[in-house]
Write a structure and sequence with these properties.
Strand order of the largest sheet: 8-11-14-19-22-25-28-31-33-34
Structural class: alpha/beta
Strand content: 25-35%
CATH architecture of the largest domain: 3 Solenoid
Number of domains: 2
Distance between the termini: 65 Å
Helix content: 10-25%
């Protein structure tokens, strides 16, 4: 959620939309599932939630709506006009006990907590917050734009990301990691998370406490990973995947659905480890089974 100071009528004028329902103030822009009565959200299908003002394709009885042809494209217009990309001139808040090595870039609005170490060539984009006693290794980038483009008749439309990145205390990120800023909310890594080299965390993700991720893993946008989960090397998580607390995912697994808490999954597509071991065993037998089928058939 990000603060705004506007109104439904102003949003309609800005987006060339039609105001349906009474005008009302807009104090924030938020995801639909967390938007309150003073927030603006875009709605394309399903439950319209509790947002005070909705960008929609059609009016909803009893609600204040701004009717537009493309709600997400209209929201992009709002974000560009009212929440422009922050500049790189200004002050950051770096604790005196933090260690900042040569080549580090800490943008305005960033906060770096006590006893945190930023190794050479780390980049913190505007609004990034790093907790206490963290270690961010060389070349890691926190807060770059999330990867989201909206298809339009004129080609892919870049969707601005106005959220940030928030790291808890005692987080360690290996060299050349990337953690993208959120769309409307922050991307968050909880206390004690440990990421190996070259791990990517997409926009809007939430990692709980003490999550451990091995090298070259890619976590797509809006994933939720519970406390104490372990991800092996080169794991790939599809967007909106939910990994339960204490779950384990074996190396090179491809995950496209929810993994229950405490379970161990493996393979592509990932399956519970006992099932996947049987699959692997049968795979080894396939050449002999084929020869037998050819001989007997």
């Amino acid at each position: 959620m990000r603060p705004l100071d506007t109104s439904a009528a102003a949003v309609a004028a800005l987006t060339a939309g039609v105001l349906a329902g009474p005008d009302r103030p807009v104090a924030a822009v938020a995801p639909l599932d967390r938007a309150g009565p003073e927030a603006l959200a875009f709605h394309e299908r399903g439950d319209p939630g509790a947002a005070g003002v909705l960008l929609t394709r059609a009016a909803i009885p009893g609600r204040t709506c701004v009717v537009v042809a493309d709600p997400l494209a209209a929201l992009v217009d709002v974000l560009r006009a009212l929440l422009p990309e922050p500049g790189w001139d200004g002050m950051a808040e770096v604790h005196p006990s933090a260690v900042v090595h040569p080549g580090v870039v800490v943008a305005p609005g960033c906060v770096v907590g006590p006893e945190t170490v930023l190794y050479p060539n780390v980049v913190l984009y505007p609004g990034t917050r790093v907790g206490a006693r963290c270690r961010i290794h060389a070349g890691t980038v926190l807060g770059a734009d999330g990867f989201r483009y909206h298809p339009t008749a004129r080609g892919p439309l870049k969707v601005p990301h106005v959220g940030g990145v928030v790291l808890g205390d005692e987080v360690e990120l290996g060299a050349l990691c990337t953690v993208d800023r959120g769309f409307l909310d922050d991307t968050r890594l909880g206390d004690g998370c440990k990421l190996d080299d070259q791990v990517h965390v997409g926009h809007n993700c939430t990692l709980g406490r003490y999550v451990v991720v091995a090298a070259q893993t890619g976590i797509s946008g809006s994933c939720r990973i519970g406390d104490g989960a372990l991800l092996g090397g080169q794991v790939g998580l599809a967007d909106h995947t939910v990994v339960g607390a204490g779950a384990r995912i074996g190396a090179q697994s491809g995950v496209h659905g929810a993994i229950p808490a405490g379970e161990t999954w493996l393979g592509t597509p990932a399956l519970p480890i006992t099932t996947m071991r049987r699959v692997y065993a049968l795979t080894r037998d396939l050449p002999a089974m084929w020869r037998s089928w050819r001989r007997d058939g």
